Amino acid sequence: MDTLDHLEEYGVSKAPSIIFLRNGHILESIPGSDPTRFRDALDRHAGGVQPIDNSATLVPELTKAVPIARLTELVKAAPVMLFMTGTPSSPRCRLSRRLVGILRGHDIDYDFFDVLADEDVRQGITEFGDWPTFPQLWVDGELVGGLEIVREGLGADPDFIKNHVVRKAAAQEDTNPV
Q1: Among 11, 30, 50, 59, which residue is least crowded by beta carbons within 10 Å?
Q2: Which CATH number belongs to the domain containing residue 73 in this structure?
Q3: 25 with 113, same domain?
Q4: Domain identity same for 91 and 35
Q5: Same domain, 21 and 83
Q6: Which contacts (CB < 8 Å, 24+ apart) does range 107-112 have?
Q7: Coiled-coil region(s) at which residues (predicted)?
Q8: How far apart, in whole angstroms, are the C-alpha atoms of residue 119 and residue 164?
Q9: pTM above 0.70?
């Protein structure tokens, strides 16, 4: 069973979501990551659960979960790289759908990564780019931004993405004389 199967099985419509299960049955589902709602639900549903040993770190640090080298490789996998929820043919949120439409409308060639398919990458890329939301557009390994930044940039200059690539190439030529 993959991540998308779990999303459908548990009726998840928003990421992140917190789902409390007992014996395979949903006790409660919390869309988002509200710590107060999480704590209240945990208090309600944790009765009879034995505490675990917290002396060992149970969740690895994100930089350890997804090595920086892998994230660097992913953001440079194509000249224009879109990290989104879902796929271009089946976006899982309206922001991803809108950004795909904008890129297609401007005939911008891009590759994509579905962050719902890999939780470690989803968490890691938000830290790596210091950008907490999706979609994220990366050009030549550098974060351009999300939907609003791309929409505003292309609205002001239809060659916004192409110019971003040209500016980076020119900057590299200035620092690396032949």
Answers
A1: 50
A2: 3.40.30.10
A3: no
A4: no
A5: no
A6: 108/80, 108/161, 109/78, 109/79, 109/80, 110/78, 110/80, 110/81, 110/82, 110/137, 111/77, 111/78, 111/80, 111/81, 111/82, 112/81, 112/82, 112/83, 112/84, 112/87, 112/88
A7: none
A8: 29
A9: no
pLDDT in tens, the chain (178 residues): 455 566 666 677 667 778 777 777 777 888 877 778 877 777 777 765 555 554 444 444 444 566 889 999 999 999 999 999 999 999 999 999 999 999 999 999 999 999 999 999 999 999 999 999 999 999 999 999 999 999 999 999 988 888 766 555 555 555 555 4
Q: Would residue 51 count as lying in a domain? A: no
Helices (H), 49-129: 62-65, 68-75, 94-105, 119-128
55 falls within a domain: no
The total of other beta-carbon atoms located within 10 Å of residue 119's CB is 14
Residues 70 and 143 in one domain: yes
- Per the structure block, which two tokens stand in for 68? 């920086």
Q: Give SS3 for 133.
A: coil
Give buried/exposed letters for 4-32 (b at 16+ CB in 10 A, else e).
eeeeeeeebeebeebbbeeeeeeeebbee
Number of domains comprising the chain: 2
